[in-house]
Amino acid sequence: MTVKDLLNPHPVTITLEETFGGALKILLERHIRALPVLDSAGIYRGMFYLYDLWELLLPKAATLEGANVTDLSFMPGSLEELREKTLAAGPRSVIEFLKDKEAPAIHPETSVKEAILMLYHHDGVLPVVEKKTRRFLGILTPWEILNRLHDKE
Amino acid sequence: MHSESAAAHVIFGWSAAWVSSLIFVAVYVMVITEKLNRAILALLGAGLMILAGVLTQEAAIRGVDFNTIGLLLGMMVIVGITGKCGVFQYVAIWSAKKVKARPIGVLFMLSIVTAFLSALLDNVTTVLLIVPVTLLITEELKVKPYPYLLSEILFSNIGGTATLIGDPPNIMIGSAVGLTFNDFVFNLTPVILIVMGATLIPIYFLWRRDLTATEAAMNRVMKFNEREAITDPRLLKQSLAVLAAVITGFILAHALNIQPATIAMFGAAALLLLDNFHRDAEEQAKSVHHAFSEVEWVTLMFFLGLFILVHGLESSGVIAKMARELLAATGGDRNVTVIAVLWGSAILSAFIDNIPFVATMIPLIKSMAPAFGGDEALLPLWWALSLGACLGGNGTLIGASANLVVAGMAERAGQPIRFLAYLKSSFLLMILSILLSHLYLWVRFL
Amino acid sequence: MHSESTAAQVIFGWSAAWVASAIFVAVYVMVVTEKLNRAIVALLGAGLMILGGVLTQEAAIRGIDFNTIGLLLGMMVIVGITGKCGVFQFVAIWSAKKVNAHPMGVLVMLSIVTAVISAFLDNVTTVLLIVPVTLLITEELKVKPYPFLISEVVFSNIGGTATLIGDPPNIMIGSAVGLTFNDFVINLTPAILVVMAATLVPVYLLWRKELVTTDAAREKVMRFNDREAITDARLLKQAVGVLACVISAFVFARFLHLEPATIAMFGAAALLLLDNFQRDAEHQSKNVHHAFAEVEWVTLIFFLGLFILVHGLETSGVIARMAHALLAATGGDRNVTVIAILWGSAFLSAFIDNIPFVATMIPLIKSMAPTFGGAHALLPLWWALSLGACLGGNGTLIGASANLVVAGMAERAGQPIRFMAYLKSCFLLMVLSVAVCHVYLWLRYL
């Protein structure tokens, strides 16, 4: 069995024109954690994660690679301040948030064990793309696998 | 003898011999009880040797065998990079399929592969690479992994004894005495081949009944695609080429007039170069940093401290006195001494770390040269020390680092190896291997 | 002079001086162009020195200054553990609150804190600890972090010059020449205090207009709880205790007959002991492994290779010849030589790594002793070398490792520091600091 037999081919996706605020709204309405971002040709360009919101809300030094800030207990904070930050970022394009931190993409021919190994390490949403063109084919989440395992019983 | 330590320098005017013995014994006892990490202990002990005035810092640095440390460091870097490309998994899967995935065949093949790899890499690295594949294969075969893991422990220690670079005691002996890679191959590899053959027989009889698998299970293993195990073909080619060049370098070292540490460190630098030259500066910095941070620094620091500790004993005359005692006990007869060193090392190494033991024995044996008529006469003693210390490690579960690493992995995998269960099967196998070494030494050298 | 290298051993019968120079220059060029990681290049070069027959492995090992490497290693371990307890964040936040979070006051305070910490820890570690807190504070103050980061770069290099352990060039000079911690404090710290004061004036004039903030923003910083920044109070006490012991030992080193490497390594072992003795064996081994894995091995390996390379140059007589040429250029006048070294080191160090430069200059200056009438007459030359090489690093963005580390972090934080922008403000600051040192050396020694 390979990823081809498991993937969800019609997940909610967004385009490169989407804003940060719009993407957050979709995450909230659908109760999902990640949105694949596609360009107009249907090519996978990256994943927008709830994670991006956390990064926005934290001081820069806390999310900086190599800065080693592991503790923010000395910094007070308020909800208004955080809400302000979120609203201010609303009109920004999702493109700004697509750094290279997206989970590695998998392919339809990836074996199911390899896919589970990746879910084990990343616990998120795996984008499935065509190997050569990176055309978006769907996503693989823990729910697709759980569903199929449940079916058999 | 060194003259850098005069009794006058030692604090409170105490005797250098007593102070150094005290520090040494304290460190030894603490290392054996394993309450504290051995690298910390050895470094603290080495520091005390200097602070107490037994050695100056300069004398301490002179006592460190940087040839051993350089060789270990270089090989660790090379093996660390090579291990990432998946070649060892490839070999393990390939060998399991060669015997049609029959459980007892797989046991034999994996044991031999382990011994072979151990002869070229260090034992801990070898088992770290082989044990995960073994667990994969035995899980698919639905056989218990216990016999496999046990056998891999034994063969990693046996295989490591065969060459200069297979096991730290050999590196230390080779470096201190100036024995070459080829010397080890000529003198130790033959007996190791015999020991391997002789160890496989009892293993076969011990476990042949337990190890059965269904056709379906064996078919699953036969469907493994070993080519997929190779994760980075480019790195594979580079690292195998460097490894081959380094081993060729060891073989030709004498003719080329170069030392093992130079070869290993140059090989490591060359492999880092090949692995990095196409990357940008930041990636290079990360990759090189990673390669060095994966080195077993704890082990190297332990060596560093130990060399200083032993040098303290040596320069205060304690080692010479111990050698005289040992000679008195063996009646000054070289052949009796060889056999005593062989069996003594084996039994001791079964219970304590063989590295500090060998570090202590090296200057001790060296100082016997006059008694036996020159360095040439010491050769059988070196082989006895190597065979005893390396093979002795098989005697108990705590006898060698590879044993502990496998035990740790087995425990985490839910297949714990118990001290007594291990002892029951392996202590006798260890005695068997020492008996064979005894015979070999007797026939060939005595 | 060393006699271990005779021309006859060099491959193809080439001249040792030519082979050594060719290898050295090739390595230097590769390091300057930064196409390849400098540790790889230095190791390969060192290997070639041995393989090319300029040095034997033994001679190469003798050429390594293990006192420098041991001191660096020990301090890296101590600082790595100390950095985890949050004490430096505490000091930074505390100092910002002391000046009521006025941006200009924070800039001055953080600069001084950076200089003081740099005097005792290495510069890269200092900026790695201070820059994140700086970014936190400036983000809350809504001022641009650029002036703060630049000023911290400059003051880390200035502060590092003040003591034996502040900067690698000082460690190398101190170790090679036998200068103590106190020698550095007595001779360099006064100059550095003047340089600090002289640098703060233009920094103030340059940025006082831009650094304004609202009361609300300041209020936010004033609400920071500095005590919460301390993440591990127990470790803090241990680490600060060990650091204090190590520094006192440096101060009394001569009286205690102790070398710096012994003090630093023993301190590291003691801190590891304190940090680990209450843990179980597996925890300990992970923790110790981690402490060693975090050490900047790339830097240490670079040093290792570099020492061998310079030793190759030295034994083949190239260094002595260079010293002759330099003396000819300065007319054999010591005072002219001092000033030439000060300014020459500063300008060169602004563009190239000061570590290989200092490594080359040390034997070169040493060989001038007979000309100037003994080792004692060389003292001003050593201070000029230290001041020039350390302060020169401030001249450009690539002049010192700390500069590059801050630039990297600033870039990732979206506040890039551009090469030319940095050059415009800092090159003059560097020239100013070297001019101050020129006056200082002239008044005190010439």
Could you explain the architecture of this structure?
The complex is a heterotrimer of chains A (153), B (446) and C (446). By secondary structure, chain A is α+β, with helices and mostly antiparallel strands. Chain A has helices spanning 20-30, 51-57, 60-63, 79-89, 112-122, 142-151, and strands spanning 14-15, 34-38, 44-49, 126-129, 136-140. Helices cover 77% and strands 0% of the residues of chain B. Chain B is built from 23 helices and no strands. Chain C is an all-alpha fold and 446 residues long. Chain C has 24 helices and no strands. In chain C, helix 1 packs antiparallel against helix 2 and helix 4 (66-83) packs parallel to helix 15 (260-276). Chain C is globular, with a radius of gyration of 22 Å. The model of chain C is unreliable at 1-8 (pLDDT under 50). Chains in contact: A-C, B-C.
List the helices and strands and how they pair.
The complex is a heterotrimer of chains A (153), B (446) and C (446).
Chain A: E1 14-15, H1 20-30, E2 34-38, E3 44-49, H2 51-57, H3 60-63, H4 79-89, H5 112-122, E4 126-129, E5 136-140, H6 142-151
Parallel strand pairs in A: 1-2
Antiparallel strand pairs in A: 2-3, 4-5
Chain B: H1 16-33, H2 38-51, H3 57-63, H4 66-83, H5 87-98, H6 103-120, H7 123-141, H8 146-160, H9 168-177, H10 181-207, H11 215-222, H12 226-229, H13 233-256, H14 260-276, H15 281-293, H16 297-315, H17 318-329, H18 334-351, H19 354-366, H20 369-372, H21 379-392, H22 401-412, H23 419-445
Helix pairs in contact in B: 1-2, 1-16, 2-16, 3-16, 4-9, 4-14, 5-6, 5-7, 6-7, 6-8, 6-10, 7-8, 7-22, 8-10, 8-22, 9-19, 10-23, 13-14, 16-19, 17-19, 18-21, 18-23, 19-21, 21-23
Chain C: H1 16-33, H2 38-51, H3 57-63, H4 66-83, H5 87-98, H6 103-120, H7 123-141, H8 146-160, H9 168-177, H10 181-187, H11 189-207, H12 215-222, H13 233-251, H14 253-256, H15 260-276, H16 281-293, H17 297-315, H18 318-329, H19 334-351, H20 354-366, H21 369-372, H22 379-392, H23 401-412, H24 419-445
